[in-house]
Please model this.
Amino acid sequence: MSKVIYVFEDDISTDHIYPGRFMATVLPSETPLHCFADMTELNSALKAKQYPEGSFLVAGSNFGCGSSREQAASTLKGHGLVIVARSFARIFLQNAVNLGLPLVHCPQIEASTGDELELKEDVLVNKTTGRTFEIVPLPKLRQAIMDSGGLIAYTRKLLVDRQA
Amino acid sequence: MPMTLSEKILARASGLNSVSAGDVVEPHVSLAMSHENAALVLHQFKEIYNGLTLPARVWDPSRIAIIFDHRIPAESSKTATNHKRVRDFIADQGITKFHDIRGDQGGICHQILPESGYVHPGAVVVGTDSHTTTHGALGAFAFGIGATEMASVWALGVALNIEVPKTIKVEISGKLSPFVSAKDIILYLIGLIKADGANYRALEFHGSTIRAMSTSSRLVLCNMAVEAGATVGMVPPDAETERYLNKEAHVSVPLWLEGPDADAVYERVVTIDADKLAPQVACPHTVDNVKPVTDIVGRKVDQIVIGSCTNGRLDDLAAAARVLKSRKIQAHTRMLVFPASWKIYKEAMELGYLKDLADSGAVIMNPGCGCCLGVHQGALGDGEVGLSTTNRNFKGRMGNPNAEVFLCSPEVAAASALRGVISDPREV
Model:
């Protein structure tokens, strides 16, 4: 069980998550510095590690729309956040799966900042409001990449299998 | 089974007789494109081989294209070092389709690929840039992926875990009025179906307007398909595709010129009447906040940009020069023009468009796309308003979260430059 640290509206783009001007920073070890860089309070709180690993960001539909920049997924992963959204944009979702960033596709989610959420197998429970929301599972192949710990490990395994 | 254009191409590339929307396939990749973010791709590529006895060699160096376009010439030592790492990697791996900053080969990736003849109808093209959808204009299944996914493609030569998209058919009929162009069609469509209206879908463009359209204009439509969330935007290849590839891109191999099956299954059909379309503008801060220009005429503009992978082609520069017609850009407005490639730059120079634009007060910049995303040249100041022919207006997009960006066609951009306020090109 963890807290919701922020609630976003619909159509949060990769430019919100990781502004373009920081794109020369590519290494996953460095991208967390610029997470939501234009939202100074949230950025400062993240950098000061005010939120424990497993904290939730909750968003409306089409979270992660826009650029293919993978920094938008690695910056969130670096803070140990779990992203819950009514829907995710395609490339962002794939990047998150490839890097092992946990996403929860929850079409009806309703939550406010500070609410306690609990992730169960196929539902998300808002402990504060007492409401339960269904989760849409990842397609099977994507789950296989997640289970391998990301696309690097998954591709490595395919290369080894190919050689055998 | 009847198939859409996407289904046909993905079946072909995956070695299957037929596929349907919802199937998951692993298509062989014809071309894998990156730009500056190849620095991250190569980092992830080396990670894949970390601990393996296999040599870290790309699957086929002739199928990888790398074009520097986001930050050229390098604006910082960090970028310059990233560029250097990528150049070293390219030399080491024997990658041939490399376009560095050079006046005889450089430009924006989504212009370099078509003009170099790297994209053919029926190909599967992946790019570490969301606007890779552009290449659907040539009848390719072309889509954006992240850097780690590209590293996997470099290693394996296949794209893993690709869901065959459902297709939305967009039927566009009639003749566009003067000063109305492909940009107005795609802005109108995105306003209609919204920013997630085609999420995970293919947009297939059909109709008499499309058949009469140049490849340059088709590239504009497919470029912005991703702004409605689409995986791909596509035009069925036809005689115009063949003409463009033969005559302008000097491709001499036989082309696959098949369209979708006549009875293909579409999720939805959207029709647009081109005759009735007015110039459109996308207002801050979302691409789907689209209004006819007449609704916002008079809005003050500080900086105007013509260029990008959307509208930096020869006909775009010609259209802007035509609207300006030796008149001066309003004194308090700045106008930056970024031709999409050096080939276009030189053609526009020879045809006099660049001189006309500069004489009117525009600044001719070197080809590149960094301005669009606020990473290289042309950033906006606090409280300023930008009007641009680029493809995104998210908050912070042109380098400043305290500025506003409006999107439009080159015609609207040039007309607005003359008056210093958003203007209708039919009235200046």
Q: What stands out?
A: Chain B touches chain A through 54 residues (CB under 8 Å). Chain B has 14 helices and 18 strands. The CA atoms of residues 60 and 157 of chain B lie 7 Å apart. Chain B has a mean pLDDT of 97.
